[in-house]
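hey all, quick one before standup. I had two proteins in the batch that finished overnight and I want to keep them in one place so we stop losing track of which output belongs to which input. First protein below, input sequence then structure tokens straight from the run.
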Amino acid sequence: MTGPRVEIDVAAVTALAAELAAAAAELARIAAATQLVAVHPAVMAAAPRAPVRVARALAHLEPAVRGLAALPLGYTALSTDAARQAAELAAAEASDAVLAGAGVLVGAPWGIADATAGALVSAGLRSADPAVLLVRGVLDAWIPEGPGVVREVPAPAGTQLATIDDLYRRVGGLRPGEVEVTPVRGADGTVRYLVLLRGMEPSLNPTLNTPGQAVKSSRGADAHTRAVAAAMRRAGVPPGAELMLAGHSQGGITAMNLAAAGGYRVTHVVTAGSPIANKRAGRARVLALEHQGDLVPDLDGAEETANRWLAVHRFGGDRRISRVAAHHGLRTGYLPELATPGFAADPGVRGWLEGTAPYLAGQPGPPRRFRLDSGPYPEPDAVRIARDLVAGSRRRDPLTGPGAAGA
């Protein structure tokens, strides 16, 4: 459905409602299964033998059960609201209704106007003020994280990566979970490395490019950061090698994590649409690209301030909330800017490019790509507690424990 200042995909809203409903059903199933732990036969059998241990374990389990029971209700409410919004949009579209005036963003449950939201952002109301930061901290505690599994995948033939535009067009070709490592031999004979990192994939997928993992990345070195480091080792990058890192969104966050971690000499980092104001990159020169209509760089709750190590290129005056996704997209929000005269003329960009010749003017070798999957998630505390209870009961059971007759 389209209006003067609104672009809403009714099918996408309908699909979102279905996904939220499915998530609510799955969470309800998990909550119900967790509640049954307390009356599991193994727990009941262990209670007479170790009443204090069982009571303590169930006391620890109770907050998790309450939290799990509340989650399906929230997802169901979101699903219902999304379905209602989709129905209203479809009805409006069928009657050829057109949203006018300020272009109200119907997809948001509170119906905020694009123009008003843009004015608030311009006035300094950031998208990650304390309340949002608190929510992010709570989410970080609830989001599970796998160990990270690295495997090599075929890489398309390499090309000369001579400009920032070249770097991000290559980043745009990475699939979910992929990272690319390219050796570059400079005029001085030294081999340096270009590492390209894509942003998160908003759909459900088994890789480390997910919204949840992006939250983990923003909090510090995470599974994605560790898996990228493992991929670099698999690619033959030796300790102490000089690196240039280019990342979009989550990829930019991880690039900053890697630059701060040590082990390699990261000399240059370029990020696009990444919240990095609260991160440090050692002595690396950092260039942050930020579309002013992209709220993702604001998710750290701070303003990226240029200094001797950090150059910030801000662009774009369209702050409509209905265009946030497009502004954050690499192809729709950032690549068009990299071809403009204003970008090339930015003193901060020109200053960052100084010293990049060994990477951008060197002789690139064959690139290597790796897919970073999440791997198995750790078992929930409730499952671990129940397993330990069962194991403890078996150890003390004269019929089934160690040393029992026939064992």
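OK second protein, same deal, sequence then tokens:
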Amino acid sequence: MKTFSLTSPKAGDLIEGKIIEQKGSSLFVDLGPYGTGIIYGKEFNNARETIHALKPQDVITAKVVDAENENGYIELSLREAGNEIIWREAEELQRKKTNFALPVIDANKGGLILDWKGIQGFLPASQLRLKHYPRVEGGDKEKILDELKKLVGTSLMVTIITTDSNEGKLIFSEKGAEVGELKEIISKHKVGDIIECEVTGVVDFGVFVKIEEGLEGLVHISELDWSLVENPADLYRTGDKATAQIIEVKDDKISLSLKALKPNPWTSAQKKYKKGDIIKGVVIKFNKYGALVSIEEGVAGLVHISEFGSEKKMKEKMELGKSYVFQIILFEPENHRLILNFLDEKTPTTATTEQ
């Protein structure tokens, strides 16, 4: 004769059972070989509406709160079971990368609020499809919010990318839903292709361009020009036509370069300069490492802050837009790397186009 071991349910387990009866503010559930379960007290009140709709023999799924209370019953929770089932479903949708449509119910400066089965989840702006991304010149947060609010009341095809039931966190992405349809379009393009495109948006980190219907790419600010670009809006406006080169196709995204089709100033600089040369340069930017100095259009090097001891002392000796004398102490044109030593401590002269 075979014997079977039965593992008793423990707190946190989901368990199925049939309704026996309701007595006052208690609901009794037949859990088969495990015994009798009970939903009462605050758990009864929390699920009152659901319980009133139940009748004997109805099958329910509940969550074990206490494996055996003082009266020998297994204490159950219907509401917690419902939450557990929903979060397990969310985890399964995330695992399968399932696409589905959800309504946008609100927006904030960081993204959109979506509703899924009564849970409010978040769709960061960074996870929006390109056509929905708020393209605001200068990155003004209030203007970004205004653009995001235009999506409230619409439905978006999304996937779940993060679930955390303990913190009630549900994060969505709109990008996953477009992967399938983009793959076929992207497959027609490869690194090195030269594209006639149109600027569709200007943001603080670059410009978006339309490659063809249904496909856009990004030209990062570092790929706009060989010269330092502080604000892409100084160079491009929405609607501008441009010729760009594809420099990367990765994760169903296309990155392009505009400067790649312009003469590389470092190539000509290689023939003109060498380590040890004394040259004039214009201070074009200060950063935490020191000062960025342009020695000609598109060729700039760093004067390290350690030469001055502090940022304050550096700015006492050099001003933005002014020309000074420097010595080249490292020159690697193939790596676009130039290190300079500050020599001129005299009153600077105003920079001219000829250096």
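Flagging for whoever picks this up: The CA atoms of residues 193 and 227 lie 23 Å apart. The chain has a mean pLDDT of 86.
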